[in-house]
Prior knowledge:
Elements: H1 2-36, H2 44-65, H3 77-101, H4 103-118, H5 126-150
Amino acid sequence: MNDIASNKATVNRLQHVLPATLVLLLAITVTWLSYTREPSDAFLFPRLISSVMVFLAMWNFLRAFLGLAKVGDGLSAQTVVRIAPGVIVMLVLVYFAAKALGFYVASFLAFLCVFSLYDPASHTAISSWVKRLLITAAFMAVIYALFTLLLKVQTPRGLYF
């Protein structure tokens, strides 16, 4: 009986440590890239955000490693299947579309795709597509205002912008 409880605790802990490790490695990679790329002025905002993210990822990793993270049961296979399409869209955005189409066009398409994938509204009703397009356009306007007007950060240029 104790072996079953011990195995369940080990699996539960692993389900917290594994994602925390992956997030920490990703945060370290992004931070390293932001500090090693030129022109340095263009990477000021990413440096700031990525440094904070490394700190938070380390904190999360330590909590998971020490067994202090007791929220949830980790990632189930069903959850992974549910989030996989959104992750694939984001990977295509980051590694291909942003460079090819430009940041704003690619982000608009990626946001619309992810929104459409997870929006429970009907995909056959025109009104739901109008709502998705308006929300996506408003979101991209906020992103444009934030990056271009407020932070004055140059985003990846592509075919369109």
